């Protein structure tokens, strides 16, 4: 869950735009001149090198010249996310490969990672249509199935959690809380791409926009662990959570998914770990951060494994490094559970600073090569 979200769009606008990607775009090199868009972010500007470019694979060459950590997004007209890159520190550069069809888009920079961002309207035009590697089409289909399976499995677990809240059973609700979030955390970039579901379901108190009501899992987490009581409002919020998760479950199958969005989504999941789980901010009341941490890593690894056959042909050294770093991170996480088949992890408030630093270093060691996966897929 991001600390702060982009603006929420209306359900009607989102539903109207939910058209699954069909057909294929020109493979080509994302590094060719007309497909590279330089994005220079500062504390008060978002400058781009071109406002029109060919549809297909594009590359954002991002440089943060400001004093604040920033994020850069490519957005559909209704604010759904095409691709993003979070946590871009001052004085650093990032490259992001994305796939776009012809149409209107917005590039947004978010200095301080807050608000709607500084926005630039852009357009993708024309673009040659070429046959995509059938293995990538198969990877997209398999990932779409995986995302739907995770949503389908989440709903009954969330209903168990909501039922306990509505019954006023504090202990049962606590026990059901973390398991109800695993499927969501594995596929969070898909849920976030819709724009309007995540702010209702997974927002933290420090991520609320002006006038936004605190709802969802973390509002109930606060009641269970910090307030240590279940109120009538909490019982209403439990029903709202199920309504919103049911909406997510019904819409997952219509999400825009491409090979590059899968690769970038894997990197986003590692960013989620780095900015929320390792710091202990995500589950600040329950301290179940390591459950979310593991689910994020599993989701990232699922995308990677589906894209791996093509990536290995294009960049064998990258795949070797990714295999090594995924294995290292998973081995490290196993230190915090006695049963490798369970999600019964050590409470994160029991994990000391040195161990948190070790976890952070392992996440960073994986995130850096993972940021190159999208480019390897489209070489």
From TrEMBL:
* Domain of life the protein comes from: Bacteria
Which keywords accompany this UniProt record? Signal
Question: Which positions fall inside the Imelysin-like domain?
Answer: 139-373
Which PROSITE patterns does the record cross-reference, listed alphabetically? PROKAR_LIPOPROTEIN (PS51257)
Query: Which GO cellular component does the record give, naming just one?
Result: periplasmic space
Pfam families, from UniProt? Cupredoxin_1 (PF13473), Peptidase_M75 (PF09375)
Protein name as catalogued: Peptidase M75 family protein
**Which species is this UniProt entry from?**
Streptomyces sp. SID12501
Which lineage is the organism of this entry classified under, starting from the top rank? Bacteria, Bacillati, Actinomycetota, Actinomycetes, Kitasatosporales
């Amino acid at each position: 869950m991001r600390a702060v979200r982009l603006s929420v769009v209306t359900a009607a606008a989102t539903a109207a735009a939910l058209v699954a990607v069909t057909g294929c775009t020109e493979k080509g090199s994302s590094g060719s001149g007309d497909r590279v868009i330089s994005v220079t972010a500062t504390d008060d500007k978002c400058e781009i090198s071109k406002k029109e470019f060919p549809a297909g694979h594009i590359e954002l060459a991002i440089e943060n010249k400001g004093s604040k950590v920033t994020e850069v997004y490519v957005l559909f007209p209704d604010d759904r996310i095409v691709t993003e890159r979070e946590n871009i520190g001052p004085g650093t550069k990032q490259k992001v490969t994305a796939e776009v069809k012809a149409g209107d888009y917005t590039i947004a920079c978010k200095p301080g990672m807050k608000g709607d961002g500084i926005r630039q309207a852009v357009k993708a035009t024309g673009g040659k249509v070429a046959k995509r590697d059938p293995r990538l089409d198969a990877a997209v289909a398999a990932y779409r199935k995986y995302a739907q399976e995770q949503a389908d499995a989440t709903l009954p677990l969330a209903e168990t959690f909501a039922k306990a809240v509505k019954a006023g059973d504090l202990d049962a609700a606590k026990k059901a809380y973390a398991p109800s979030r695993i499927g969501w955390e594995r596929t969070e970039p898909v849920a976030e791409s819709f724009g309007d579901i995540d702010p209702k379901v997974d927002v933290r108190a420090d991520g609320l926009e002006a006038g936004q009501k605190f709802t969802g899992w973390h509002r109930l987490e606060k009641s269970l662990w910090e307030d240590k009581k279940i109120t009538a409002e909490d019982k209403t919020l439990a029903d709202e959570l199920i309504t919103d998760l049911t909406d997510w479950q019904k819409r997952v199958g219509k999400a825009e998914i491409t090979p590059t969005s899968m690769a970038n989504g894997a990197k986003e999941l590692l960013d989620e770990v780095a900015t929320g789980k390792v710091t202990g901010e995500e589950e600040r009341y329950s301290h179940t951060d390591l459950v979310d941490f593991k689910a994020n890593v599993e989701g990232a690894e699922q995308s990677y494994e589906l894209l791996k056959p093509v990536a290995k042909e294009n960049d064998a050294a990258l795949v070797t490094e990714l295999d090594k770093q995924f294995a290292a991170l998973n081995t490290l996480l196993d230190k915090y559970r006695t049963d490798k088949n369970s999600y019964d992890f050590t409470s994160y408030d029991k994990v000391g600073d040195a161990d948190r630093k070790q976890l952070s270093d392992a996440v960073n060691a994986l995130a850096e090569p993972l940021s190159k996966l999208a480019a390897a897929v489209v070489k």
